[in-house]
């Protein structure tokens, strides 16, 4: 503890201050020791199976039938109609709602079985194919939404309109961080404009107080906004200024007794620590070549998905609680033949490298990695089949893979029909995924609530059940 | 965020939830047992209980249902035993005495009451609430319930739903400056607390200037006040502040939270193609002119419906449309149209009534008397908006739905002049036509006797002369490579600069992303074939006119069986377009077309001819389609508000070639359109009759599918008229007369079949061909076009207007847009306050209901928010929820007195603000004593003055103001202050944030109220200070404390620049270091430093000065931050040192809080 913090703390202690001051004191007192939780949940509801989450969102919607969901019938029936009985009366986006014909489209590239588990993977994902025995493929994730904006918000916050806290903010609120030098919830973004986007509500705090919001890590000079000292100021100067500030603040507290004042000083001290810890985590110069090679050539370019995967590992190593990695692409309504492979190339190797890297460091067992999109894509063509063929949005069933703490490695969950159009067995709602994620962290999703506007809200709203079938 | 369940996701399936052990009820929500009040917002029964005990009169005290009992029942029991009929268990309601007495409560006899037995039972299967809901009553809560039953279990309506009354202010001892103090002192007496002493004068003027205007006082203002020893010194300050323009800005900054104001759309694309700052400026002006709250609100809710609504009144209704708007390709129109109507119901509920109305979207409200049908009835006031759900302007700059022209005076004058000329030209043309028609009867009479063949020749000649295009679809021909159709879009063409939000990524993504952007087959580059047509499948179908442009057809399916010879038969795939110059008509130009069509079935909605931009690109143009085989023709500027649209009463038959013609007279009126079926004009239903701006497709507007001219067949988003066929398309350059369209249908027989009306129809033909009429038409066209050009390129604000035909509102099952249950008429929340049946069932009626002096909520809610602005916390802490789950006022009599007084004063906002800040209560010192920290940490009883952190806007404005950087210019387009690079790009948006060097320095230093608000990427340095998200109405911001705030105040260039400029000013004014420190300190906090502060700063200043003197390069680097030039006349080391001293002072809480 810095001497001035100690000074303030002692004064508060001697005065026997109110609960808020006492709380600030307690926080100060803990700053030097490792603590288990800085959130509202002092004791876990269940034995935690993972300490942290890396959540990878492929925004734009990966085509499940071209990647991890092998449907040989599509090869045979290429160009034939999706049977109307299969399609039923489900919602379609207005981009294909006007179609009268729904011709099936075969997978773009051949699939093969891999690993002990024999998982089918498209040859578009050669690196992921190598780690299938560490993965749990959930084939029946579903959403009611047919448009990116509501579906993406639903995936992050459990609700389709902006305003509710995302998963990371809930987790931060519940169990905080074990690292008091870095934010508990970090957001990393990459991708190129292709018609879809993501926005701050995916890493905001919704109705939770803003201290629970995610902090975006950016490429460039300031990995966290304003974390760099301005030109002409070094850490020694900064220390000197904060010491001066603390002395003045001490005097102000003397007069007003405002319990917020010491709390503020502790935030300044954390800001000071972040000025060192953030550049340190963003600086990959000490990573061995072998590790960089694992993530592929793009890892050397800041702001790429590959770099973000490496940063996710570095953040995880430092016990950042929730790391949200968002990558934009995939929205292949047309030209999927041309546009899908580059996106696959972009994400395959780094995603696999992240899992392998965590594993080789012994961190995979207490890290939960979740990988997937806000929905999938149709097995039929949007429009007609020609060189420009594309696939429309498909929410009925799509594939996520999970890896790490608490989930069954080398497994598959849920079954869909031969057209990857409807779920046959074990549908998994987004709320179920959230419930499961919280369970793995030791949190009962029904108990984790926050009151806003007179109502006790949950990440899982009024639904959600733990998908026990994927848990170890 | 208010609604529990989506329009898009079904309500939880009951079986999924846990069953209550006792009643079999399915449990939906739970509160975490360890959620303390530190984070929650519940004042709760604890306080009430503590208060009872503290009073030491537990035995005698009457337990109050509203304040003591209901919070316990509401929080723990009402979910299953409350207002929501569908989730009610065992038929028991604990929110109503009748049911409770019958089943669970024996008044006066707690031991015989099932309620007490249940909550105290140790048998877990019997105990309430059941374990599965994770709730447990405390001993204190049980004691309250027991006591209440013992005293008779008296029920009362919820306090906030009973109209407030002015009670007599209590007699008290102590400093009373106005009535507020009497109520406060009485409350303090009950708590055994004493008020704090009055704050010193420097603190007072600082506080009141900040809470009223959001800006700090200048030192001159402070000094003047310190020197003014008159008894009215303080009041003079207050009056000056209330009269200053900054007051309205500060009030508006708060109202923006209610209005969910934003400069961008939100949702996926988050486009900036909207103009709402005029509305923001109206709000500022309204507060500054002290517009009464009822008028202020009525204009925003219903200004357009007021008699002879003014421009200002219409502008105010932008309040209703400044919410989110989707432009996501694929969004279902009705789904979002409903979403907008519900958003407004939520805004009214939250913004004016402090009710969580959105909770009743899927089911009856769980706590408050708002049935699901009440919620939809409320939304009914907004369900008739003449607006689209999905509307994407692309680059067209066109706005969807009702708009208000936002022109400067010069433009308005120009428009008025053009309108006058047009009116004169129309009158002249009409009278000329009449005159010509009167001249011709003799000639007509002679003509009518001519042989039919001569008449036919005359008609044919007339038609031929008007024909500009003809497509018989007889043959096809291969397309040479050099004649392949090109996309019509000229890439890089810019819309008019005054209509464009700057910084849209017209130059594409930033360079590093451009490299990675897909090129092959993608957008940009050389002109390409329109709409991704496939070259191998394209053929020409030649024009029937010599030298005419051929039609281009993909998957041509031309064969025999046409109306005449061959025809084009539609499959699901084929499509085509006419010659590029065919049919390119604006609303000002008369034109006609005819064609033969064979309907293969009854089409729900299928296009025949389309000449418009894509839905992603504004959509301007015209279209003929079949709706259940009725002819539907529209010509529009924007859908659905600015268009003419008619639908024929006649249907066209299935399986039979039918002749269809459309004639249009260039008048922009529905009456100017005639639809002919087999030669006869059909009666029509007029859907819309308001076309006031250009209906030409905007060729630079394309986003996905370029405008390519007249199209038919398969088209994105449209249902192909499968199994139909089209033949013999002609276009004409004027409105054909009836005899001509009849001729086109039946040919030579027309003279005989039209004998009865021949004279009249020949007259029309003669008039149409008269050379004077043709000349007049030219003049009329010129006048129309001049008016068209004057009005069509003016920026527009989206405002509110109702559709011409009322739309029925329905209760929506599970909140889903297309799951209609019972129809409901518009009505406000009648279970809370009755709706006078004499009031109109429109938004005017809603406003009158809200501002009925007896409405229990409106005045209370607003007065409470004014209090919140001055004190940081409202008298009711949950200023967003006055319902049963909200917190209760610690001083209800004060709140009610203020509310009634506010109404009686004519909803006078400035007067109320003045009363609050004039009170002795407000003027108390805000320092906390040990006693206060212990007994009233949240200052509910008001034994001290306000103490709050500045709002996000105030933190920044304060720094700008004290450094002298603040640009006080009011209003105008939003500003783009410093923002680190790449923040918008990180969201992968189509907009880039401008660099400071692209803007005037002014832009960096405007008040934060004017900062551009991008919904999906809020201003980062304000976000960390709890700036409100603008997705929905927010009545109250939480105050958080994070290290990110420290980083902003330490390192954000905005602040570094302000520190340096402040230091510059001080160095120029003072020469002695101590004086410099004192001045910096005063500028930052409006007080002098204490000895301890002075000592710390003196040491720091000296150390810094030495540091920078030794390293002047470092000093130069530090002071260079910002767009303001460095003052070369100053010693850079001194400046750098004092800059850091300033930074140190500004980073102490006294400099960014109000106290």
Describe it for me?
The complex is a heterodimer of chains A (472) and B (1155). With 472 residues, chain A is α/β, with parallel strands linked by helices. Helices cover 34% and strands 17% of the residues of chain A. Chain A has helices at 3-15, 19-30, 72-76, 84-87, 126-130, 148-157, 167-175, 235-256, 260-282, 289-295, 305-317, 336-360, 430-440, and strands spanning 52-59, 111-114, 119-122, 135-142, 185-191, 215-217, 322-328, 367-372, 376-382, 390-394, 398-404, 411-413, 415-416, 423-425, 428-429, 450-452, 455-457. In chain A, helix 1 (3-15) runs antiparallel to helix 2, helix 2 runs parallel beside helix 9 and helix 11 runs parallel beside helix 12. Residues 7-35 of chain A have low confidence and may be disordered. Chain B is of the alpha+beta class. In chain B, 38% of the residues lie in helices and 10% in strands. In chain B, the strands form 7 sheets. In chain B, strands 4, 7, 8, 10, 15, 16, 17 and 20 form an 8-stranded antiparallel sheet that branches. In chain B, helix 2 packs across helix 6 (139-150) and helix 37 crosses helix 38. The longest helix of chain B is centred in the middle third of the chain and has 31 residues, at 409-439. At the A-B interface, helix 2, helix 6, helix 8, helix 9 and helix 12 of A face helix 31, helix 34, helix 35, helix 38 and helix 39 of B.
């Amino acid at each position: 503890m810095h001497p001035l913090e100690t000074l303030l703390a002692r004064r508060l202690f001697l005065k026997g201050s109110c609960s808020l001051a006492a709380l600030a004191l307690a926080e100060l007192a803990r700053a030097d020791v490792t603590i288990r939780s800085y959130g509202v949940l002092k004791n876990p509801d269940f034995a935690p199976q993972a300490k942290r989450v890396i959540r990878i969102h492929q925004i734009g919607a990966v085509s499940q039938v071209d990647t991890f969901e092998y449907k040989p019938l599509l090869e045979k029936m290429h160009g034939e109609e999706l049977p109307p009985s299969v399609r039923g009366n489900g919602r379609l986006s207005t981009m294909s709602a006007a179609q009268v014909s729904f011709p099936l489209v075969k997978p773009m590239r051949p699939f093969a079985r891999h690993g002990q588990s024999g998982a089918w993977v498209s040859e578009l994902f050669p690196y992921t194919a190598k780690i299938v025995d560490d993965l749990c493929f959930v084939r029946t994730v579903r959403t009611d939404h047919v448009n990116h904006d509501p579906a993406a918000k639903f995936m992050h916050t459990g609700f389709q309109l902006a305003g509710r806290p995302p998963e990371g903010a809930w987790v931060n609120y519940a169990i905080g961080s074990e690292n008091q030098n870095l934010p508990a919830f970090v957001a990393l973004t990459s991708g190129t404009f292709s018609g879809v986007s993501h926005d701050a509500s995916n890493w905001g705090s919704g109705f939770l107080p803003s201290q629970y919001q995610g902090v975006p890590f950016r490429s460039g000079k300031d990995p966290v906004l304003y974390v760099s000292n301005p030109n002409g100021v070094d850490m020694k100067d900064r220390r000197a200024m904060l010491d001066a500030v603390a002395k003045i603040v001490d005097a102000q507290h003397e007069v007003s007794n405002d319990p917020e004042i010491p709390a503020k000083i502790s935030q300044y001290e954390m800001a000071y620590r972040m000025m060192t810890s953030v550049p340190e985590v963003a600086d990959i110069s000490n990573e061995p070549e072998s590790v960089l090679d694992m993530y592929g050539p793009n890892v050397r370019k800041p702001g790429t998905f590959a770099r973000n995967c490496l940063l996710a590992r570095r953040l995880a190593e430092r016990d950042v609680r929730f790391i949200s990695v968002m990558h934009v692409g995939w929205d292949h309504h047309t030209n999927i033949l041309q546009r899908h492979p580059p996106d696959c190339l972009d994400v395959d190797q780094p995603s696999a490298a992240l899992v392998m890297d965590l594993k080789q460091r012994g961190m995979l067992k207490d890290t939960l990695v979740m990988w997937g999109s806000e929905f999938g894509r149709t097995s039929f063509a949007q429009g007609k089949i020609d060189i420009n063929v594309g696939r429309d949005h498909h929410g009925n069933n799509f594939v996520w893979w999970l890896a790490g703490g608490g989930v069954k490695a080398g497994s598959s969950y849920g079954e869909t029909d031969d057209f990857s159009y409807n779920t046959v067995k074990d549908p998994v709602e987004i709320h179920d995924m959230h419930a499961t994620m919280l369970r793995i962290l030791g949190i009962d999703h029904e108990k984790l609530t926050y009151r806003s506007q007179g109502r006790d809200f949950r990440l899982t709203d009024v639904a959600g059940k733990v998908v026990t079938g994927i848990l170890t | 965020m208010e609604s529990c369940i989506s329009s898009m996701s079904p309500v939880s399936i009951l079986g999924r939830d846990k069953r209550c052990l006792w009643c079999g009820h399915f449990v939906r929500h739970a509160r975490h047992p360890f959620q303390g009040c530190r984070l929650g917002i519940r004042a709760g029964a604890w306080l009430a209980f503590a208060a009872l005990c503290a009073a030491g009169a537990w035995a005698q005290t009457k337990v109050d249902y509203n304040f003591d009992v209901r919070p316990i029942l509401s929080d723990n029991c009402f979910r299953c035993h409350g207002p929501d009929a569908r989730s009610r268990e065992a038929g028991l309601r604990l929110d109503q005495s009748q049911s409770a007495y019958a089943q669970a409560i024996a008044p006066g006899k707690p031991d015989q009451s099932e309620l007490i037995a249940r909550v105290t039972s140790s048998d877990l299967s019997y105990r309430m609430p059941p374990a599965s809901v994770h709730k447990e009553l405390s001993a204190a809560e049980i004691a309250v319930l027991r006591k209440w039953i013992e005293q008779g279990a008296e029920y009362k309506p919820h306090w906030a739903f009973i109209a407030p009354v002015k009670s007599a202010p209590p007699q008290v001892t102590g400093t009373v400056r106005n009535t507020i103090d009497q109520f406060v002192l009485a409350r303090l007496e009950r708590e055994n607390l004493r008020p704090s002493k009055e704050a010193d004068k420097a603190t007072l003027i600082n506080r009141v200037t900040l809470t009223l205007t959001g800006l700090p006082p200048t030192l001159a203002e402070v000094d003047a006040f310190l020197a003014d020893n008159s008894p009215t010194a303080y009041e003079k300050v207050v009056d000056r502040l209330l009269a200053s323009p900054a007051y309205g800005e500060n009030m508006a900054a708060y109202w923006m939270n209610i209005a969910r104001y934003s400069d961008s759309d939100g949702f996926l694309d988050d486009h900036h193609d909207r103009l709402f700052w005029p509305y923001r400026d109206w709000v500022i002006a309204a507060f500054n002119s002290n517009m009464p709250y009822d008028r202020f609100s009525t204009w925003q809710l219903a200004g357009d419906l007021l008699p002879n609504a003014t421009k200002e009144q219409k502008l105010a209704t932008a309040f209703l449309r400044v919410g989110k708007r989707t432009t996501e390709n694929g969004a279902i129109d009705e789904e979002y149209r409903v979403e907008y109507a519900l958003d407004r119901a939520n805004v009214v509920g939250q913004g004016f009534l402090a009710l969580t109305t959105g909770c009743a979207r899927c089911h009856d409200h769980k706590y408050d008397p708002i049935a699901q049908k009440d919620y939809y009835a409320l939304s009914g006031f907004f369900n008739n908006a003449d607006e689209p759900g999905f509307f994407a302007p692309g680059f067209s700059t066109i706005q969807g739905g009702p708009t208000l022209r936002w022109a400067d005076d010069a433009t308005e004058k120009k428009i008025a002049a053009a309108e006058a000329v047009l009116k004169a030209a129309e009158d002249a043309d009409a009278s000329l036509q009449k005159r010509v028609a009167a001249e011709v009867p003799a000639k007509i009479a002679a003509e009518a006797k001519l042989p039919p063949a001569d008449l036919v020749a005359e008609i044919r000649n007339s038609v031929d002369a008007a024909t500009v295009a003809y497509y018989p679809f007889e043959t096809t021909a291969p397309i040479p490579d050099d004649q392949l159709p090109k996309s019509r879009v000229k890439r890089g063409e810019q819309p008019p600069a005054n209509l464009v939000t700057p910084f849209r990524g017209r130059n594409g993504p930033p360079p590093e992303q451009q490299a990675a952007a897909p090129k092959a087959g993608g957008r940009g580059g050389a002109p390409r074939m329109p709409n991704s047509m496939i070259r191998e499948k394209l053929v020409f179908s030649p024009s029937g006119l010599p030298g005419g442009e051929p039609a281009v057809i993909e998957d041509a399916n031309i064969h025999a069986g046409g109306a005449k010879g061959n025809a084009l038969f539609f499959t699901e795939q084929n499509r085509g377009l006419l010659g590029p110059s065919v049919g390119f008509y604006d609303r000002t130009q008369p034109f006609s077309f005819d064609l033969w069509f064979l309907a293969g079935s009854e089409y729900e909605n299928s296009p025949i001819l389309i000449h418009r931009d894509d839905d992603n690109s504004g959509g301007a143009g015209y279209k003929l389609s079949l709706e259940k085989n009725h002819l539907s023709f529209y010509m529009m500027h924007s859908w659905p508000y600015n268009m003419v649209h008619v639908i024929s009463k006649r249907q066209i038959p299935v399986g039979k070639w039918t002749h269809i013609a459309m004639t249009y007279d260039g008048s922009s009126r529905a009456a100017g359109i005639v639809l002919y079926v087999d030669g006869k004009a059909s009666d029509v239903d007029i859907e819309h009759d308001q076309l006031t701006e250009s209906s030409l497709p905007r060729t630079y507007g394309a986003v996905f599918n370029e405008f390519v001219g007249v199209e038919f067949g398969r088209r994105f988003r449209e249902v192909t008229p499968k199994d139909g066929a089209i033949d013999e398309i002609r276009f004409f350059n004027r409105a054909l007369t009836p005899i001509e369209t009849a001729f086109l249908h039946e040919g030579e027989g027309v003279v005989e079949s039209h004998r009865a009306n021949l004279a009249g129809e020949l007259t029309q033909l003669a008039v149409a061909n008269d050379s004077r009429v043709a000349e007049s038409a030219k003049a009329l066209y010129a006048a129309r076009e001049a008016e068209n050009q004057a009005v069509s390129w003016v920026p527009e604000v989206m405002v509110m207007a109702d559709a011409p035909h009322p739309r029925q509102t329905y209760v929506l099952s599970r909140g889903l847009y297309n799951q209609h249950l019972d129809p409901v008429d518009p009505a406000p929340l009648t279970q809370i306050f009755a709706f006078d049946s004499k009031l109109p069932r429109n938004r005017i009626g809603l406003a009158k209901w809200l501002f009925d002096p007896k409405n229990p909520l409106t005045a209370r809610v607003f007065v409470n928010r004014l209090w919140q602005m001055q004190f940081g916390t409202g008298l009711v802490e949950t200023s967003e929820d006055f319902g049963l789950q909200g917190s209760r006022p610690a001083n209800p009599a004060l709140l009610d007195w203020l509310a009634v007084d506010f109404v009686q004063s004519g909803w006078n906002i400035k007067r109320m603000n003045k009363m609050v800040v004039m009170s002795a209560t407000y003027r108390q010192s805000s320092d906390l004593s040990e006693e206060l920290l212990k007994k009233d940490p949240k200052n509910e009883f008001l034994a001290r003055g306000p103490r709050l952190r500045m709002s996000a806007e105030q933190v920044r404005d304060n720094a700008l103001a004290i450094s002298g950087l603040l640009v006080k210019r009011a209003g105008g387009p939003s500003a783009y202050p410093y923002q680190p690079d790449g923040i918008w790009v990180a969201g992968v948006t189509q907009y880039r944030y401008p660099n400071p060097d692209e803007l005037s320095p002014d832009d960096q230093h405007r008040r934060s109220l004017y900062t551009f608000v991008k919904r999906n990427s809020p201003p980062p340095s304000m976000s960390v200070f709890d700036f409100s998200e603008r997705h929905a109405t927010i009545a109250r911001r939480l105050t958080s404390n994070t290290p990110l705030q420290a980083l902003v105040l330490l390192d954000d260039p905005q602040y570094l620049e302000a520190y340096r400029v402040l230091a510059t000013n001080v160095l120029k004014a003072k020469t002695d270091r101590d004086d410099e420190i004192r001045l910096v300190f005063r500028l930052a906090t409006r007080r002098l430093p204490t000895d301890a502060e002075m000592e710390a700063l003196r040491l720091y200043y000296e150390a810094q000065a030495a540091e920078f003197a030794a390293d002047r390069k470092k000093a130069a680097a530090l002071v260079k931050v910002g767009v303001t030039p460095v003052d070369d006349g100053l010693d850079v080391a001194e400046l750098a040192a004092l800059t850091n001293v300033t930074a140190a002072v500004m980073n102490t809480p006294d400099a960014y809080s109000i106290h």
